[in-house]
Specification:
3-stranded antiparallel sheet, 17% helix, 139 residues, globular
Length: 139
């Protein structure tokens, strides 16, 4: 089923995650902005060791597996739908991970600018869908 939400480029939102690592508030692979998602998990990022350490220092440990939530823990190179405000905090601290514009929901633009995202974009501003298996795992 195709998602009808829009990305930051005004195009249809593409999947961020893979079947093996289902991300997004609904764990369907999409970084969709939903009113019942208080964290606003709308930024499709490729996490780095620096970012994982940063977010852990802020009280959100994304690298430790949590079996009770079927969460395997993230490693550098994994794609994940990040909270808009956490990505902005990381940007301000100089450790923002790279993003896929085509997979990042337009609602993030209430927190950051498109230019900020473009500074960290892995896909060109006119990109079509990137393959979830093409993200680098070397950091």
């Amino acid at each position: 089923m195709q998602c009808t939400a829009r990305n930051v480029l005004g195009q249809l939102l593409h999947k961020c995650g893979s079947e093996a690592l289902a991300t997004g508030f609904l764990r369907d692979g999409y970084c969709v902005g939903l009113s019942n998602d208080p964290g606003q998990h709308v930024v499709c990022a490729v996490v780095t060791a620096e970012f994982l350490a940063f977010t852990k220092s802020r009280g959100n440990d994304l690298s430790t597996p949590r079996e009770m939530f079927s969460f395997p823990g993230l490693r550098p190179g994994d794609r994940w739908c990040l909270c808009a405000r956490r990505w902005k905090e990381a940007y301000d601290a100089g450790v923002a991970p790279s993003v896929y514009l085509s997979c990042t929901h337009e609602s993030v633009l209430s927190v950051v600018t498109l230019d900020m995202l473009k500074e960290h974009a892995l896909d060109p501003p006119t990109a079509e869908t990137p393959s979830a298996s093409s993200s680098s795992s070397s950091e």
